[in-house]
Design brief:
This protein is α/β, with parallel strands linked by helices. The protein is about 60% helix and about 5% strand. A 5-stranded parallel sheet has the order 3-2-1-4-5, sandwiched between helices. Helix 1 (about 15-25) runs parallel beside helix 2, helix 3 (about 65-80) crosses helix 23 (about 355-375) and helix 4 (about 90-100) packs across helix 14 (about 235-250). The longest helix has 18 residues, at about 120-140.
Length: about 375
């Protein structure tokens, strides 16, 4: 309930579409909905959002974000977030919040559904991966498994195939849960890659990046899915909610998360896994719940996860600018990263041997954060956004 004008962020995905449809049904009146996309249509969900908006009869607004606006806003948004930005979608989130603030004071968002109802592909993938791995380990000697794993990581295979195999039991050490799950789906740099990237002193000070997540995993109970959800609710979701809060407040608008109402979260914790996961698809119970409210093409469409044309931008001249920044003397002299490792990232990416887009994004944000907060380079914040 709200005593001020409110609306909702609408991506055209299941979560935001579900609450938009339900809110319209409860209010029996059109609501305000807001979407963000890019000039590059292949990386935009605006067409799906429009379809939902038309279906529920909302008063719909949208904004398109250009490459220039994206990069110009980054230092400003890192300042608001107080730390390097993990997801490129944070930038898009700010711009849609800025659009919404022109019309309403409060927005509803779909955060929390994936972590309570098993919406991410990593959940069914891990369940399937674990099942096949048990058979694989029982039939294959340890030396042979290590040889196969090293072969996948050697760079001999085509980039696309290598990337897929790295996410399977063939490319991961199942004896190590941090490698099998956290390295697999969370980190841009695996534990091994961190040792290669960071200078010895930095790596020693960094400690174990998975200590917090592993503490929740080890204290979880129940079947594998509910242990994964429990861990994510206490770790990954915390980061998402911080992003949601910081980016919306940067635009002076308040966001609320109906999927995380405590009564609903307590209910989802008791839902048997087979009601959420079917094959490699998640949130089955939510899909069934809203099938009568939304087009089937929306309910059952493939999850895109707030796409950004980052990979497309890196295929152009932008990569030269980023490489110059990350190999600049001031960056290298910070003594955090091995220059040779950074050079290798760009060389591999240009040659198509490996998609290092996420890794370059993380390093860009770390260096920008250094320049804003450590160097006090206020000129980076002068661009109006």
């Amino acid at each position: 309930m709200s005593e001020v004008p409110f609306g909702g962020f609408l991506s055209g995905g299941l979560d935001s579409s579900a609450f938009a449809a339900l809110t319209t049904k409860i209010r029996r009146a059109p609501i305000e909905t807001f979407s963000v996309g890019y000039a590059e249509e292949d990386f935009s969900e605006l067409s799906y959002a429009r379809r939902v908006a038309q279906h529920i009869g909302s008063r719909h607004q949208e904004v398109r974000l250009s490459r220039q606006e994206f990069f110009a806003a980054l230092p400003h948004l890192i300042w608001h977030e107080d730390e390097p930005i993990v997801w490129p979608s944070s930038v898009a989130l700010y711009f849609v919040a800025k659009l919404a603030r022109e019309h309403v004071t409060v927005v509803l968002t779909g955060e929390g559904s994936d972590e309570t109802l098993g919406g991410y592909m990593r959940y069914p993938w891990t369940l399937a991966n674990s099942g096949v791995d048990r058979i694989y380990r029982s039939l294959t000697p340890t030396p042979l498994r290590e040889w196969i794993r090293n072969g996948i990581g050697s760079g001999v295979l085509p980039s696309a195939l290598r990337r897929k195999l790295e996410h399977t039991f063939l490319g991961r050490d199942s004896a190590s849960w941090p490698s099998f799950y956290f390295d697999n789906f969370y980190s841009a740099f695996s534990a091994k890659e961190q040792r290669e990237l960071l200078t010895p002193g930095t790596h020693e000070q960094a400690g174990n990046p998975y200590a917090n997540s592993m503490a929740f995993w080890e204290n979880s109970s129940g079947d594998t899915l509910h242990r994964l959800l429990y861990t994510d609710i206490h770790t990954y979701l915390v980061e998402l909610l911080m992003k949601q809060d910081q980016m919306s407040m940067a635009a002076s608008i308040e966001s609320r998360v109906p999927f995380l109402d405590h009564v609903l979260v307590e209910l989802t914790a008791r839902i048997p896994a087979h009601y959420s996961i079917r094959g490699l698809s998640g949130k089955h119970i939510l899909k069934r719940a809203v099938e009568d409210l939304l087009p089937r093409s929306i309910v059952h469409r493939w999850k895109m996860g707030f796409p950004t044309p980052w990979a497309y931008w890196l295929s152009g001249p932008q990569i030269d600018e980023l490489e110059s920044m990350l190999l600049a003397q001031r960056t290298v002299e910070r003594g955090l990263m091995q220059r040779s490792a950074v050079e290798k990232l760009f060389k591999e990416h240009r040659a198509g041997r490996r998609d290092n887009g996420v890794r370059i994004w993380r390093l860009l944000n770390l260096e920008t954060w250094q320049r804003v907060f450590v160097d006090g380079e206020s000129s980076l914040l002068q661009t109006a956004v």
